[in-house]
C-alpha cells in the first residue's frame, strides 16, 4: 500500500478546504473513485523504492519538457514528454523506452465549463479515446469513449457541496455488451479532516479512508484506510502520518496490517526541486534486505 511521486502540500490545503469553490469539491469527488484523495496520498504518495530521476522545464512561450528515468532492479525505464500550450489548447507528446508514442490534445472551455481531450498511442491503433469533462458549481461529470468500432464507454458523475459530495462511475464494453465496472463513493470534508467511503470492483470491495490535520502550522496529519473484500472475506488496513520538520523538509511514516512499515524523508533543496529518500521493512521477509529508494526531481 505504498506508492510514489511529489510534495505533500495537500495537507496544508486541507485547512482552507471549507473556502473552496463548490465545483472544486465536486471535482475531487470524481477522484475518490480513482483513489486520488489526500487520504490515500498520505499513505502512498512519494514512496519510491527504486532509483528515480525527474527533470522538468518550461518557458514563457508555453513549451514544457519533462524527462523521467527509473531503475527497477537492473532494468532502466524512462520517457520524455513535451507539452505545448497555445491559448486554450494543450498538446502533450510522450515517447518511452519501449518506443511507444503517446499523444494527448486537450481543449479547455470549448463550451462554458467543458474540457475536451483526445488521446492515442502509437503503434496501438485501438488506443484512441475521446474524453469530455464538464464542471459546474454543484455538479461535474466525465465521459469517455474509445475510438474503435466496438468502443469501451465510461461515464462518471458527482454532485455535492463544500462539506458533502457523492459520485458514481460506470463502464460498458459494447463488444461484449457487458458492464466493465460500476463504483460509487461519498466524501465528507471539514476544514481539518476529511473522510471517504468507496465501493469498487463491481461492489466486491469497500474502502473507508480518513485524514485528520492535527496541526496545520507544521503539517502534522494522520490518515487511515480500511479495505474489505466481500468475495474473499479479507480485511486490510494501513495507517500513516506526516510531519514537517521545517518548511522545506517532510517526514512520512506508514504501517499496514501485513507488518510492513515504511518511512520517507523529502527535502526541497531549491524551489520546486526535491530529493526523496524512502525505506521499507517487511518482518515476514526477514532474510531479505530492506528496500531503499532515492528520487530526485529537478525544476530550474
Automatic annotation (TrEMBL):
InterPro entries in the record: Porin_dom_sf, Porin_Euk, Porin_Euk/Tom40
Signal peptide: none
Localization: Membrane
Molecular-function annotations in GO: porin activity; voltage-gated monoatomic anion channel activity
UniProt xrefs under Pfam families: Porin_3
Calcium keyword on record: no
Keywords: Ion transport, Membrane, Porin, Transmembrane, Transmembrane beta strand, Transport
Major place of residence: membrane
Annotated segments matching region Disordered: 1-20
Keyword presence, Lyase: no
Entry GO CC: mitochondrial outer membrane; pore complex
PANTHER family per the UniProt record, alphabetical: MITOCHONDRIAL OUTER MEMBRANE PROTEIN PORIN 4 (PTHR11743:SF27), VOLTAGE-DEPENDENT ANION-SELECTIVE CHANNEL (PTHR11743)
Similarity comment: Belongs to the eukaryotic mitochondrial porin (TC 1.B.8.1) family.
Protein's name in the database: Uncharacterized protein
Organism: Zingiber officinale
Amino acid at each position: 500500500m505504498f506508492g510514489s511521486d511529489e510534495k505533500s502540500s495537500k495537507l496544508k490545503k486541507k485547512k482552507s478546504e471549507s473556502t473552496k469553490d463548490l465545483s472544486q469539491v465536486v471535482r475531487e469527488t470524481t477522484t475518490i473513485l480513482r483513489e486520488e484523495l489526500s487520504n490515500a496520498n498520505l499513505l502512498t504518495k512519494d514512496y519510491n523504492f527504486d532509483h528515480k530521476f525527474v527533470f522538468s522545464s518550461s518557458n514563457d512561450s508555453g513549451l514544457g519538457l519533462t524527462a523521467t528515468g527509473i531503475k527497477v532492479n537492473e532494468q532502466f525505464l524512462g520517457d520524455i514528454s513535451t507539452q505545448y500550450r497555445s491559448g486554450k489548447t494543450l498538446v502533450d507528446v510522450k515517447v518511452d523506452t519501449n518506443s511507444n508514442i503517446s499523444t494527448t490534445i486537450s481543449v479547455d472551455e470549448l463550451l462554458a465549463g467543458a474540457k475536451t481531450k483526445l488521446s492515442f498511442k502509437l503503434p496501438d491503433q485501438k488506443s484512441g479515446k475521446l474524453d469530455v469533462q464538464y464542471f459546474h458549481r454543484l455538479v461535474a461529470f466525465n465521459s469517455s469513449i474509445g475510438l474503435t468500432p466496438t468502443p469501451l464507454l465510461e461515464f462518471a458523475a458527482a454532485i455535492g457541496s463544500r462539506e458533502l459530495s457523492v459520485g458514481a462511475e460506470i463502464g460498458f464494453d459494447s463488444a461484449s455488451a457487458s458492464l466493465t465496472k460500476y463504483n460509487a463513493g461519498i466524501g465528507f470534508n471539514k476544514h481539518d479532516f476529511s473522510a471517504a467511503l468507496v465501493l469498487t470492483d463491481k461492489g466486491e470491495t469497500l474502502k473507508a479512508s480518513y485524514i485528520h490535520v492535527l496541526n496545520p502550522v507544521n503539517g502534522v496529519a494522520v490518515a487511515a484506510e480500511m479495505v474489505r473484500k466481500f468475495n474473499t472475506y479479507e480485511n486490510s488496513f494501513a495507517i500513516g502520518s506526516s510531519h514537517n520538520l521545517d518548511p522545506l523538509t517532510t517526514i512520512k511514516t506508514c504501517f499496514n496490517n501485513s507488518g510492513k512499515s515504511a518511512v520517507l524523508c523529502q527535502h526541497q533543496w531549491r524551489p520546486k526541486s526535491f530529493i526523496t529518500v524512502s525505506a521499507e521493512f517487511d518482518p515476514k521477509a526477514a532474510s531479505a534486505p530492506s528496500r531503499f529508494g532515492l528520487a530526485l526531481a529537478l525544476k530550474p
